Amino acid sequence: MMLKKKSPKRPRAQRKARVDREKIAASIAELDRIKPPNAKVAKAVALFKSWLADESGYDEKVWPRLKKALEDERKLAGARSLFHD
Q: Per-domain residue ranges for the chain?
């Protein structure tokens, strides 16, 4: 009996990144199916597609800081939390 060599598992971050890319590609495909009724909607769809295609990493870097600032301001104002993670 010969045992098959298992392929090494991808790190969790790599698997998540692959799934995220697949979801992004599916979202862009859905946006491509939209037939905008006017120029304003067409511009909004183009903006969403550009956001989805952005791979600069800027949002991943900035979002935690922005989220903390929003939460801190809401605490000062006595408002409820926006995020439940």
A: 26-77
